[in-house]
């Protein structure tokens, strides 16, 4: 009888709701004062009991306010979303308390006790992060060992790229074609010339000095540009009816997909020079770029093949019955549809490519992660690994998260047409 | 008639030309590279061959599962690296699966907070390059651990320090008998299940297979302890002073921080992808399936075991195996933090000492390649077996 009386129902809402709310509020009050004011309001209890008191109180409180069809909109929503069963209530409390407990030291380290002003490690007092490290090294982290006075060249190369891409979005369809051709075939050479210099009155900057985040962008941009067409050709090759071409494509794709990128990079850096005639020298950056491009092209090929396979056979037959040849059929009918089907896959491959770029440090090229490795071993800045990697992680996270969001939007936008 | 024949021949020739051209191009590129390599190696006074594998390696490896020191051969060093790669992959796969399944199920929770937390876990760890995560754990998080004398103490059994994690060492007597008893237990469980299936299908009797299997799994090894002289004791790690300020633990097993960092980063990163697979798999099972199962009178546990899981697993397993493969390949990032895996031991240290770039890189790549291909063959076989058999 007592048990049925204790079950919260709508009839007794006037007793249960205030009682339960008091329990819940008290539980949160306990945790909040504990973390932010260093006051333990349940200190009179034994230590273990005091420790789990908020969990216990909150649990009882959540049980008491779990009234089905109470008629109060807020309460119903609360119960449905975070308090639908005993187990859920427990997890909810656990997660909320962990977040409250974690937020205070995290904020202290990140902002409140962190140091922003200064120019050397000695300016970093207190227990927080030393963002001075990032501030002092910022230039290096972005441009690597590129000479300071020449950095406008890196900036202008990227500004030009973004401007061209931006304009290409808005110009009328007729001129767009030429813009894209210019972007794909002319701009890369302008960009390289601008970065490396050596003529037109620009000082020569060797590729070993390129680095930092800008190198990440350079490698990603070139690899994306070239891995896409190669991947499409490989995918077509794999589905070709000509056995020699099919087997060569399969072998090529599976070879690259079966090995880790790090061994491919080693191959490009150490083994590949052995295959060239004595005396010829290909720049390390170019070797690494080719390796990354071929590696990602194999993954791209598999994604595109997925799209080709998903296309109904009727599309091929219709194109052929119109008298189209192999290339016209693929370029005009098959590929536009197949590529649209696999946009998420393509975006994921490009995302993987961007995430793979930090790996190039194993062959001695210093992009963002590599530069942080260099900076943290500087005798004046020892012990700054945490700040450095948190910063690098944040930068990469923003880039990758933005990319994945963009691809999701693109997918939604294009899927409406079908 | 004649015209048609010519047309077919024409098509044959049309098909032949590009193939012949591609093959010729490929052969000439390979030939070009091979001649260059031969000339280059001749200039350096080395000849192509794998004889160096039996030469003395004369370097030490910090962490090895089998006995190794400088007097062993390069071939042995390769084996040490391979075993270390396999070790970290197995640990990573184990942890990633557990974490991935938990997060994947949490993303489907009807509790808003849990679903959101799981979603943010996935969004955060999936979008940070793996190498940065490894660096973070190794250079930042694990370096913040205390020195051995102030170790984080887990009930005096194991100790977490900046030098690694010390756990008790298992000391077995008659370990082989214990292994035989385990094998025996598994065989009897297999026959029990076959018997139970027969009983269920022919007589409609349902045996408590799970409880019985668990009983067998515990009782047979236990009998081997009691009757056949198998015994197990632990060597607990003990603090030992090396000099005035330097301490270490001995007697236990030391798990080096490189391994911890690598396993943590690999499993947390891969778990995000596995979580997405699990989510897709569970969503992929239609609601009608569950309703149909409920309407023929199956209870909740039976619905999960007999209807939802078999269908969800069919969606989950192929991409998840792919992730396992990725994890194994990603374990090669060990080279960045000096965990002695195959790439570091063989493709870096051994290559530097011998200068045999072509042989060593080829062996390393071929090892990974054969691993990938064997797993994908296994996968294709599994897919064929699991594919819906349409009548």
Short description:
Chain A is an all-alpha fold. Helix content of chain A is 72%, strand content 0%. Chain A folds into two domains: 111 residues, no CATH class; 226 residues, MetI-like fold (Orthogonal Bundle), CATH 1.10.3720.
Description:
The complex is a heterodimer of chains A (418) and B (391). With 418 residues, chain A is an all-alpha fold. Chain A is built from 17 helices and no strands. In chain A, helix 11 runs antiparallel to helix 12 and helix 12 packs across helix 14. The longest helix of chain A has 31 residues. Chain A is extended, with a radius of gyration of 30 Å. The mean pLDDT of chain A is 82. Chain B is globular, with a radius of gyration of 28 Å. By secondary structure, chain B is α+β, with helices and mostly antiparallel strands. The model of chain B has no long low-confidence stretch (mean pLDDT 83). In chain B, strand 6 and strand 7 form a beta hairpin. Chain B has 11 helices and 8 strands. The chains are: A mainly alpha (418), B alpha+beta (391). Chains A and B meet through helix 4, helix 5, helix 10, helix 11 and helix 15 of A and helix 1, helix 3, helix 4, helix 10 and helix 11 of B.
The strand count of chain A comes to 0
Q: Which structural class do the helices and strands of chain B define?
A: alpha+beta
Number of helices of chain B: 11
Stretches with pLDDT under 50, minimum 5 residues of chain B: none
Q: How are the SSEs ordered, and which strands pair?
A:
The complex is a heterodimer of chains A (418) and B (391).
Chain A lengths: L1 H5 L6 H25 L9 H18 L8 H10 L3 H27 L19 H12 L7 H20 L2 H24 L15 H27 L4 H16 L2 H11 L12 H27 L2 H9 L4 H16 L1 H14 L11 H9 L8 H31 L3
Helix pairs in contact in A: 2-3, 2-5, 3-5, 6-9, 6-16, 7-8, 9-10, 9-12, 9-16, 10-12, 11-12, 12-14, 12-15, 13-14, 15-17, 16-17
Chain B lengths: L1 H43 L29 H34 L4 H15 L3 H12 L10 E3 L3 E4 L2 E4 L1 E5 L1 H29 L5 H19 L3 E5 L2 E4 L5 E4 L2 E3 L1 H28 L2 H9 L4 H31 L11 H13 L2 H30 L5
Antiparallel strand pairs in B: 1-2, 2-3, 3-8, 4-5, 6-7
Helix pairs in contact in B: 2-3, 2-7, 2-10, 3-7, 4-7, 5-6, 7-9, 8-9, 9-11, 10-11
């Amino acid at each position: 009888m007592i048990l049925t009386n204790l079950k919260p129902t709508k009839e007794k809402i006037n007793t249960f709701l205030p009682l339960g709310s008091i329990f819940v509020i008290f539980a949160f009050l306990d945790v909040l004062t504990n973390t932010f004011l260093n006051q333990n309001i349940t200190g009179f209890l034994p230590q273990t009991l005091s420790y789990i008191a908020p969990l216990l109180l909150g649990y009882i409180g959540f049980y008491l306010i779990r009234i089905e069809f109470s008629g109060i909109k807020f309460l119903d929503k609360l119960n449905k979303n975070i308090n639908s069963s005993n187990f859920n209530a427990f997890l909810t409390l656990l997660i909320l308390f962990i977040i409250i407990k974690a937020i205070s030291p995290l904020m202290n380290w990140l902002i409140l006790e962190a140091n922003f002003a200064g120019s050397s490690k000695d300016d970093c007092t207190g227990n927080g992060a030393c963002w001075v490290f990032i501030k002092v090294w910022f230039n290096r982290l972005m441009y690597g060992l590129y000479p300071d006075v020449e950095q406008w060249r890196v900036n202008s190369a990227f500004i030009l790229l973004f401007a061209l891409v931006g304009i290409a979005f808005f110009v009328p369809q007729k001129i767009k074609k030429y813009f894209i051709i210019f972007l794909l075939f002319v701009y890369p050479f302008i960009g390289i010339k601008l970065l490396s210099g050596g003529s037109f009155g620009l000082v020569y900057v060797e590729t070993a000095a390129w680095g930092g985040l800008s190198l990440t962008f350079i490698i990603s941009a070139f690899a994306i540009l070239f891995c896409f067409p190669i991947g499409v050709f490989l995918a077509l090759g794999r589905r070709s009816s000509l056995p020699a071409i099919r087997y060569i494509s399969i072998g090529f794709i599976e070879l690259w997909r079966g090995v880790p990128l790090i061994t491919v990079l080693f191959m490009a850096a150490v083994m590949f020079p052995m295959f060239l005639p004595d005396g010829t020298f290909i720049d390390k950056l170019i070797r690494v770029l080719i390796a990354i491009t071929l590696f990602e092209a194999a993954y791209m090929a598999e994604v595109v093949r997925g799209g080709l396979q998903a296309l109904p056979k009727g599309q091929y037959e219709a194109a052929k019955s119109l008298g189209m040849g192999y290339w016209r059929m693929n370029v005009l009918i098959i590929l536009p549809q197949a590529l649209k089907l696999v946009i998420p896959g393509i975006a994921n491959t490009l995302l993987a490519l961007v995430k793979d770029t930090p790996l190039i440090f194993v062959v001695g090229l210093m992009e963002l992660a590599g530069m942080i490795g260099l900076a943290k071993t500087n005798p004046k800045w020892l012990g700054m690994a945490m700040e450095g990697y948190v910063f690098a992680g944040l930068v990469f996270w923003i880039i990758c998260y933005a990319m994945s969001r963009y691809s999701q939007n693109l997918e939604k936008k294009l899927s409406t047409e079908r | 008639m004649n015209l048609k024949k010519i047309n077919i021949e024409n098509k044959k020739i049309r098909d032949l030309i590009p193939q012949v051209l591609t093959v010729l191009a490929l052969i000439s590129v390979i030939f070009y590279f091979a001649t260059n390599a031969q000339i280059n190696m001749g200039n350096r006074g080395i000849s192509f061959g794998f004889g160096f594998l039996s030469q003395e390696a004369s370097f030490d490896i910090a962490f090895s599962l089998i006995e190794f020191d400088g007097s062993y051969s390069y071939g042995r060093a390769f084996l040490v690296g391979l075993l270390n790669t396999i070790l970290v992959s197995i640990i990573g796969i184990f942890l990633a699966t557990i974490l991935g399944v938990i997060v994947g199920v949490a993303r489907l929770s009807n509790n808003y907070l849990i679903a959101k937390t799981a979603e943010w876990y996935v969004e955060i760890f999936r979008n940070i390059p793996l190498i940065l995560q490894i660096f973070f754990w190794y250079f930042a998080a694990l370096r913040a651990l205390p020195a051995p004398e102030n170790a984080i103490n887990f009930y005096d059994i194991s100790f977490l320090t900046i030098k690694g994690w010390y756990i008790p060492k298992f000391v077995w007597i008659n370990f082989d008998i214990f292994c035989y008893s385990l094998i025996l237990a598994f065989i009897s469980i297999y026959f029990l299940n076959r018997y139970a299936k027969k009983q269920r299908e022919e007589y409609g009797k349902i045996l408590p297979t799970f409880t019985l299997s668990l009983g067998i799994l515990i009782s047979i090894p236990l009998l081997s302890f009691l009757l056949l002289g198998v015994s197990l004791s632990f060597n607990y790690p003990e603090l030992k002073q090396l000099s005035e300020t330097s301490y270490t633990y001995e007697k236990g097993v030391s798990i080096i921080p490189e391994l911890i960092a690598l396993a943590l980063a690999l499993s947390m990163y891969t778990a995000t992808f596995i979580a997405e697979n699990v989510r897709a798999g569970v969503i992929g099972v239609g609601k009608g399936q569950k309703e149909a199962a409920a309407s023929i009178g199956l209870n909740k546990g039976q619905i999960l075991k007999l209807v939802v899981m078999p269908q969800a697993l069919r969606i989950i397993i192929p991409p998840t195996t792919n992730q396992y493969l990725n994890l194994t390949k990603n374990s090669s990032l060990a080279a960045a933090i000096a965990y002695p895996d195959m790439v570091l031991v063989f493709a870096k240290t051994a290559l530097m000492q011998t200068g045999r770039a072509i042989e060593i890189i080829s062996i390393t790549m071929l090892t990974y390649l054969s691993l990938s291909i064997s797993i994908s063959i296994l996968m294709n076989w599994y897919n064929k077996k699991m594919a819906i058999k349409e009548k």
